[in-house]
Known about the structure:
By secondary structure, this protein is of the alpha+beta class. It has 13 helices and 16 strands. The protein has an 8-stranded mixed beta sheet with strand order 3-2-8-9-10-11-1-12, sandwiched between helices. A hairpin with a 2-residue loop joins strand 6 (94-103) and strand 7 (106-110). Helix 9 (257-265) crosses helix 11 and helix 9 packs antiparallel against helix 13 (361-373). The radius of gyration is 22 Å and the shape is globular. The mean pLDDT is 94.
Amino acid sequence: MTSLLKPGASVSLSKEALGALLDGLRRMGYQPVGPRVREAAIVYDVLESPDDLPRGYTSEQNAGYYRLIPGDGTNYFDITPGPQSWKQFLFPPVSEILRAQREGKNWQLLPVSQEAPALAFVGVRPCELAAIQVQDRVFLRADWQDPVYRARRERVFLLAVNCLHPGDTCFCASMGTGPQAGNGFDLCLTELEDVFLVEMGSERGCELMASLPYQAVREEQRLRAQQGLEAARQAMGRHVADVEGLPDLLLKHLDARRWQEVAQRCLSCANCTQVCPTCFCWDTREVMALNGKVTHRERVWDSCFNPDYSYVAGGNSRPSTLARYRQWLIHKFATWKYQFGTSGCVGCGRCITWCPARIDITEELAAIRQESEA
């Protein structure tokens, strides 16, 4: 049986062994973190046992609409993600990057700890796994690596879960990021009615599985998983056409009438960028102690929808909501690819669900395409 434990291989695991899996992660030094129900939404927090997971829950999502639906189902991972993403653990909303102390008339720089917790991300959806890899391209480049991100990323165990029940605002199939996870995980689960099929993606994943009561995968289990994934592809609530052609389409139509129409609805509230798992805009602020003897610099999340974000000496380079929305959409689907070699969107649908103006990014792209063909 140990011959089954190698990267790329799959085994089956009873659902009763999920607690043992979490215990195994703790023995390896990782604190399991995963989806939990809090304040009528799915959030990511510490998992003490499988009972903390949203077992039986589903959700209804549409543009500007989100409702959790409790049920009597037995599946742990039928629920699609809520407003939070794994970004908060790797690229924290607030992180200290400099500290200094006043000594007489001089300032002395103090060390800033980059020590990061060892976390196991439990229940990472394929679109979210792709989002982590997108942020890897941003923060772990060959020419520069962000020390905060790197320290945290190196201490993460990724336990992905294939998505068999996409939400109404999901379009990961269009973006090529789901519903089946690609590479980059340590373990990946496919949840069937009675068992988990577990694919091993790393030696760490194999090490964990060696401590659990796994079995060989039966052919009918493999077939059920394949059928479930194909059904999920067909059940996507949204679709984006010709993703590869979007950079040219958008950059050639900077003056499309649709930009003005969507700008009249957009509140420039930044909800879309705050829930997005790939957006990385940030700013710095100086925080001085009341006694004037210690100061520290913090990096904080920001948004290109914030008017102050595009303020430069002499004025604002994007003074209108139209300019800010156009910048966000074009960066996400066009210029991001030129910068980082990939799209900035993974099709998770959060920006649609959590937009109070009910702006649907897939509708906007389709409308610009239609206008260009008129």
